[in-house]
Write a structure and sequence with these properties.
Elements: E1 2-6, E2 9-13, E3 16-23, H1 26-36, E4 46-47, E5 53-60, H2 61-69, E6 75-82, H3 83-93, H4 107-112
Antiparallel strand pairs: 1-2, 3-5, 3-6, 4-5
Length: 121
């Protein structure tokens, strides 16, 4: 669990793992998702070219370990990145500068700008 301190706020971020689950049997895949109560982010299984069904799900650390231990012949489970770590890295890519501060208005923008109170005399 990561703890971030930003000025007066402390943020505790628990890892959220992205996993992909594949199965030849669609019913077994759906039953597994419901029994484990996985977050599929409103998505459903999609059929791949080789005929297997695949779904992406998101889970926390504690549940990830139980999922890895429950691998079976019917299900192929792959664990991908920690989504919280990726979000923190992406947040670092965002500029802190106001991108509009150095913008130069064009002639068309000058004509469209309303000045004053808009009261006709």
């Amino acid at each position: 669990m990561k703890v971030y301190k930003i000025k007066y706020i402390t943020i505790v971020m628990e890892p959220v793992w992205k996993i992909k689950i594949r199965s030849k049997d669609k019913k077994a895949l759906i039953d597994y998702i419901f029994s484990e109560r996985l977050d599929t982010s409103c998505g459903g299984p999609k059929r791949l070219d080789d005929g297997t069904f695949e779904i992406e799900a998101y889970t926390k650390d504690s549940q990830k370990n139980t999922i890895v231990n429950r691998k079976s012949n019917l299900l192929d489970i792959e664990i991908y990145d920690d989504m919280m770590q990726l979000a923190v890295k992406k947040q670092g890519d965002i500029s802190k500068e106001n991108r509009y501060s150095r913008a130069k208005p064009t002639d068309a923008e000058h004509q469209a700008v309303v000045k004053g109170f808009g009261v006709k005399e």
